[in-house]
Amino acid sequence: MQRRRxxxxxxxxxxxxxxxxxxxxILDPYVERHGLGLVIRARALFRxxxxxxxxxxxxxxxxxxxxxxxxxxxIDPETQSIDAIRPDQGxxxxxxxxxxxxxxxxxxxxxxxxxxxx
Length: 118
Hints:
Layout: E1 2-5, H1 14-33, E2 38-40, E3 46-48, E4 52-55, E5 58-62, E6 69-76, E7 81-85, E8 92-94, E9 97-100, E10 109-112, H2 113-116
Parallel strand pairs: 1-4
Antiparallel strand pairs: 2-5, 3-4, 5-6, 6-7, 7-8, 9-10
């Protein structure tokens, strides 16, 4: 089984937590406005499919009529990037902008990644 973890130490730094707080400020109103579920600061191990375990910084858990869907976000202060693990759309690593198009939203969310690290 493959395991993917954020590249942060067990006790995240202030800078890491500041980026996480800024990202949460952006995601939370968007998720609420579109009825996409909850933004969760997830400090737990999750199984994505049968072969990958993941330890994200943030998770957006979307309720659906069928199975629940989650997108996972990992912040990397070292490379000033965000890994977005999106089971239905493929994973991306963003250093400039991150565009998120979750199921159920009628507009894209574009995040200027570099500004999160200022």
